[in-house]
Design goal:
The chain has 334 residues and is an alpha+beta fold. The chain contains nine helices and seven strands. The chain has three domains: 69 residues, no CATH class; 116 residues, no CATH class; 105 residues, no CATH class. 56% of the residues lie in helices and 12% in strands. The strands form two sheets. Strands 1-4-3-2-5 form a five-stranded antiparallel sheet, with no helix packed on it. A two-stranded antiparallel ribbon has the order 6-7. Strand 2 and strand 3 form a beta hairpin. Helix 5 packs antiparallel against helix 6 and helix 7 runs antiparallel to helix 8. The N and C termini lie far apart (68 Å).
Length: 334
């Protein structure tokens, strides 16, 4: 047989069904016999090695054989199946999207149920409105941060998580502009029951939730420390400071020593608790000796900034979180 034979007539394949075999790759030998005009394949795969798969086709009229070359050639071919990896990747991506969608819906439902519960408690006068507002302030952000592990490990998971504060941002804007009326929402998160308040502190609050999820997510301690100080530290400072804060800070008569100390202590404890939570789940690896000192410094920075008389210039739901975020970023370096 001279030259290369580049044609195939009708090929009749005799083989067993191969569907269901989990083959990442298989190594086969092709034997081509020009005299018989047949093609046979033998595989090295343990499942397929017992069988020979052959193809037979009639010789063309113009074929001439040379006596100087062998009529049978045998050469190896390595076959890989990338379509299997593609199929698995597509399946994993679909599962991640489904999981993240379900997680977003669950977190949003939980946030709505939290506000609804405290609204009922306020209406029945089982809890004061100011206390209800601050408990919502504490719990909604911390529960949001605690919920992050239920999302998948996909890179897009943080965007699904951020949908929850984004939807709440839209709700606050709609009701803050009085485009729609939701008295339960207004009573739960405002000081004086004015819808326009929704466009200030509460809106900045949920914006910070979204920023921490998008920018830092689960792999950085910065986001969880920022939320711990904003939600827990500031929340407990207001609750305890209102009740026991008779001694005011000299440079800011609207803040008390008890409230500031409460913010530092609660911010520190909640930050350590959140870091331990994510460390136990394997998202963070921390040297706790250094971590304790760093978290204490961050909580101190957040407390000092919170105590400054700058509320008329910048809302404390912006100044405090940004200060703790910057301090955490500089101390942890990530």
């Amino acid at each position: 047989m001279e030259g290369k034979i580049t044609w195939f007539n009708k090929i009749y394949i005799k083989s067993r069904e191969l569907s269901g075999l989990a083959l990442d790759s298989l190594f086969c030998f092709i034997s081509f016999s020009a005299a018989r005009m047949s093609l046979s394949l033998s595989f090295t795969h343990p499942i397929l090695s017992r069988h020979v798969y052959s193809a037979v086709f009639p010789p063309p009229r113009f074929l001439f054989l040379s006596p100087h070359i062998p009529t049978t050639s045998r050469f190896p071919i390595l076959y890989r199946a990338p379509q299997r990896a593609t199929a698995l990747s597509a399946t994993a991506a679909t599962a991640s999207i489904f999981r993240d969608t379900a997680a977003s819906a669950s977190v949003f439902a939980g946030a709505y149920a939290l506000v609804f519960t405290f609204d009922i408690l306020t209406q029945k006068e089982l809890i004061q409105q100011n206390l209800s507002r601050k408990l919502v302030h504490i719990l909604s952000g911390l529960l949001f941060a605690i919920s992050w592990p239920i999302f998948s490990n996909a890179d897009e998971a943080r965007y699904f998580a951020s949908l929850v504060p984004l939807i709440n941002c839209l709700r606050l804007v709609i009701h803050g502009l009085s485009l729609s009326d939701d008295q339960s929402l207004i009573k739960s998160v405002t000081r004086e029951g004015n819808p326009k308040e929704l466009l200030r502190g509460p809106l900045y609050y949920v914006a910070m939730l979204m920023l921490c999820a998008l920018a830092f997510w689960r792999e950085s301690p910065v986001g969880v420390i920022c939320l711990a100080n904003m939600c827990g530290g500031d929340g407990f400072a207001d609750i305890i400071g209102r009740k026991y804060g008779s001694s005011k800070i000299p440079y800011n008569q609207s803040k008390s020593w008890v409230g500031s100390i409460s913010m530092f202590v609660s911010g520190f404890i909640i930050s350590i608790g959140m870091l331990y939570y994510y460390s136990a789940l394997g998202y963070l690896q921390l040297d706790w000796g250094y971590t304790m000192h760093r978290v204490a410094l961050i909580s101190l920075v957040a407390t000092v900034v919170e105590s400054l008389p700058i509320t008329m210039l910048i809302d404390d739901n912006i100044s405090g979180p940004l200060a703790s975020m910057l301090a955490a970023y500089l101390t942890f370096g990530q």
